[in-house]
Predict the 3D structure of the following.
Amino acid sequence: MGQPRFTYQDPQTRLAVLEKVTPDEARQAFAAALETVLLVVPCGTEVDPKLPDGRPLPRWACGAEGELPPGAKVFRPPLVDRLRSSDARRARLAVDDRGLWAREPDGTVHHVPFTEVVGVEMRGPGRVVFGRDTCVIPVVPELWAGIGPAVDAVDAAVPGQLRYPASAFRPAD
């Protein structure tokens, strides 16, 4: 399947095309988009979006699994962090051809299958992987030592159109 072809249209032409869109066509297009929409809001923001018929939009929740997969390549925090923190000694990142897993210090394991990645933020030598189910797994050198193979696995498994550079914008402290 090739990329859609877009041709430049001057503002007057675009406005003329938009004026021909009926409210019903706009409603149908919006309803179709809701089937695959990903709504991202700041932490702590409560939203209650609904489909045109009043049903709530499906909500995904980050699923937690019990164990890292056998045979996966496992990464640990940098040595200095492991020396200073028992939490760092228990944390792990794992990757195989199916996806990423991150084990928190409390033992909770989060998983993002490569088939369910909705975006990858490229942060220099690292990546932040966003899963469809709201899981976010940072694959960054600040958290994990020797992540080159994990970054290579992410880049090989995730289509280029889902990768984007990290924003240089940083909120004021």
Observations:
- The chain has a mean pLDDT of 86.
- Residues 64-165 form a domain with the PH-domain like fold (CATH 2.30.29).
- DSSP finds five helices and nine strands in the chain.
